[in-house]
Amino acid sequence: MPFDQYLSEIDEVIASGRYKDNWESLSKHTPPKWYTSGKLGIFIHWGVYAVPAFGNEWYARNMYDPGHREFQHHRKTYGDQKAFGYKDFIPLFKGEKFDPAAWIDLFSAAGARFILPVAEHHDGFAMFDTAFNRWNAANMGPRRDVMGELRQAAESAGLRFCASTHRAEHYFFMNMGRTFDSDVNDPAYEDFYGPAVYLPEFGSEQLGRTTETPSAIGPTESWLTDWMVRTCEFIDRYQPKVLYFDWWIKNYAFKPYLKKIAAYYYNRAAQWGEEVTINYKWGAFPPGVGTFDVERGALTGISPVPWQTCTAIGKRSWGYTGDNTFKSARQVICDLIDIVSKNGILLLNVGPRADGTITREETEVLLDMGGWLRNNGEGIYDTVPWRSFGEGCVNAQEGFFMDGEEKEYTAEDFRFTYKNGCVYAFQLRPNGRDVTIRSLALRDFADPGIVNVRLLGCESDMEYTRDGDGLHIAMPENADTALPICFRIDLM
Questions:
Q1: Which secondary-structure segment (H or E) carries 223?
Q2: Are residues 375 and 394 part of one domain?
Q3: What are the C-alpha distances in Å from 346 to residues 60, 296, 313, 362, 405?
Q4: What is the structure's pLDDT at 83?
Q5: What is the pLDDT of residue 215?
Q6: Structural domain tally of the chain?
Q7: Distances in Å between the alpha carbon of 267 and those of 239, 271, 288, 289, 292?
Q8: How high is the pLDDT of residue 285?
Q9: Neighbouring C-beta atoms of residue 223, cutoff 10 Å
Q10: Residue partners of 441: CB distance under 8 A and separation at least 6
Q11: How far does the chain reach from its first CA to its final CA, in angstroms?
Q12: Cys-Cys link to 423, which of 27, 156, 479, 489 (CB 3.0-4.6 A)?
């Protein structure tokens, strides 16, 4: 569909649909049940940045910034940035071992209910076939419609296909290449490197700042219109069941375009007969319009509405790097339990190599998590928060980028979920000794009775007593305490 025709199509879909491009109308949206009950999705950062595999997925920006180690690494390894720029990595991004069915088999084995690959990162290289960006994986690099193949494989296996777009940040992402003689300044590649605008708000030391004021410096109207059309084209071609946006859409200039995109997306989903939602960060959307995402972080209590944490198995980078370090399966499982107990969903990232293979470390974590979920998933999937998210001395710090170090849980730390008259109590650091759950103490006649206690993964019922100090459970001698354990407590 031509660009101008798309603009008319967007207006027509909004005019004829249930959802209008205003917050009052959009706030009537509710997140889908499959999403809030599924609890676990796989985030995938795979793109050109996997070729240099150095620093992190921001290599495309940092290689042009003299203040970052990627700058000198690039010159030492590939030459100066005018002779060998970021574009020159594209022919090396071959994805020759990319097997979407194998990826989906692994993610299914991990217990995931949906996948969410990055359709376009800040670097502007689209991992899908598009009429509006010649710099895409169908035309260059792998020469495959990566999003299309992943969607087909996922849906064939019963997983929902979702996707993210980080194109908003492309407006300024390569701007440090303007500060010296680099290929960013070559008009022949203007459509790849983008405006590369050096905004005072987004200098190298202030990149993390955003603004909420109407007077803020932001993208131009023409660029924002182009961004909106590209986003709507992706929605139509790939029908993602969750549409994830990264952080810069918080900039005030995006607000009217976000309303249009959200209305278009929700109306299109109604035409497809599907339930969908939008992931957003910071204050890009008002509460209720989409699903709030906390990047590499958590909440400290139960949220009244579903929310999401996006985090990665890799500690240093979302994408593949040669020196990345990785979380343990225990840390990832504990994070999942904590998030779900607070009405959250975990979006867990992997970063495949440039050839399309997934690292041994990430594979092992995913398989270990899947094995644990086969025994304990009853207390995760389709659950809701209980009256308390947990007990113990260890809790998350609220906010973004708080998940670097593994929390030192003890045998006193529990998390709770609820389903079908059962409380599920997860002991985060079991030690094999008898257990006391103080939140289930017998305090008055209003407390529900307990008719049975079972350790998930164990066939026999547990011996227990209950008094004013708590629910006391006798642990079997052969209990596996290498990872968190879960008690199903049947209420009367």
A1: helix 221-238
A2: no
A3: 27, 10, 12, 16, 17
A4: 98
A5: 47
A6: 2
A7: 12, 6, 16, 13, 20
A8: 96
A9: 17
A10: 466, 467, 468, 469, 470, 471
A11: 60
A12: 489
Considering the domain architecture, whether residues 474 and 375 belong to the same structural domain is answered as no
Question: What pLDDT was estimated at residue 40?
Answer: 98
Tokens of 439: 């939140």
Q: Using DSSP, how many helices (H) and how many strands (E) does the chain show?
A: 12, 17
Half-sphere exposure of residue 2, counting CA atoms within 13 Å on the CB side? Answer: 3
Q: List the structure tokens of 294.
A: 């906390």
Question: If residue 108 lies in a helix (H) or strand (E), which one and from where to where?
Answer: helix 100-109
Of 480, 462, 458, nearest to 471 by C-alpha is 462
Residues of the chain with pLDDT under 50: 204-210, 214-215
111 is a domain residue = yes
Q: 174 and 254: one domain?
A: yes
Domain containing residue 66: 3-379
- Boundary residue ending a domain (379, 400, 419): 379
Same domain for 171 and 266, yes or no, is: yes
Sheet holding 422-427, edge to edge: 390-391, 414-419, 422-427, 485-491, 450-455
Per-residue pLDDT at 443? 82
| SS3 category, 192 | helix
338 and 197: one domain? Answer: yes
Q: Which two tokens stand for residue 208?
A: 């993390």
> Does residue 238 contact residue 150 with C-beta atoms inside 8 Å?
no
Residue 7 and residue 79 share a domain: yes
pTM for the model stands at 0.95
Whether residue 385 is contained in a domain is answered as no
Residue 202 pLDDT: 54
Q: Which of 121, 122, 142, 139 is nearest to 130 (CA)?
A: 139
Same domain membership, residue 80 and residue 41:
yes
33 in a structural domain: yes
In a domain, 384, yes or no: no
CATH number at residue 408: 2.60.40.1180
Measure the CA angle with vertex 479, ends 443 and 463; round to 5°.
35
CA distance 336 to 51: 31
Question: What is the pLDDT at residue 130?
Answer: 98
CA distances from 401 to 42, 310, 312, 366, 398 (A): 18, 10, 11, 22, 9
Q: What is the CATH number of the domain that holds 326?
A: 3.20.20.80
pLDDT at 204: 42
What would the two tokens of residue 211 be?
Answer: 């603004």
Q: Which two tokens stand for residue 48?
A: 């050109």
- 471 with 333, same domain: the answer is no
